[in-house]
Design a protein that fits this description.
By secondary structure, the chain is an all-alpha fold. It is about 65% helix and about 0% strand.
Length: about 140
């Protein structure tokens, strides 16, 4: 490996290690390196070296680490600066989607019962307006 490609590889591995560390710390339950290594089926020392930017793991090992961290392989391998969606963020986005679907169902039920969409008499905008501003228009499926 040339000096240039060697330094690119080292820089990428350091970024990957930082991403692994960030994802591990973001996991609910405060997992240790040992916990993630065990979930991935690798030695703690191997995981520790990778998290510190050292080593040259095979794709299979990286896929197992990604799974243990609760992300997919492309997310784990994303270049530094790319938007990385950790497991908690993905869960929150699914919960928001579920809440939005429930709200849509309630709006449809209210409209069916009263012949018009629900109204809010409080001084702030209704939740539907907040969701629409935050996530786009509400669609009736």
């Amino acid at each position: 490996m040339s000096t240039k490609s060697s330094s690119v590889h080292a820089g990428y591995m350091q970024g990957l290690g930082r991403r692994m560390h960030t994802l591990r710390k973001a996991m609910e339950g405060h997992y240790t390196q040992q916990d993630i290594a065990c979930r991935a089926g690798i030695r703690r020392k191997t995981y520790g070296l990778l998290e510190h930017g050292h080593g040259n793991p095979c794709l299979k090992t990286l896929a197992r680490i990604a799974h243990a961290l609760g992300v997919d392989l492309p997310t784990l391998l994303a270049p530094e600066g790319a938007v990385v969606q950790d497991a908690q963020t993905a869960l929150l986005l699914r919960e928001i989607q579920t809440m939005r679907q429930r709200l849509d169902a309630l709006v449809r039920q209210t409209q069916a019962l009263h012949g018009r969409p629900p109204t809010c008499t409080c001084p702030h905008p209704p939740v539907e307006a907040f969701l629409e501003l935050s996530f786009g228009p509400v669609h009736d499926d």
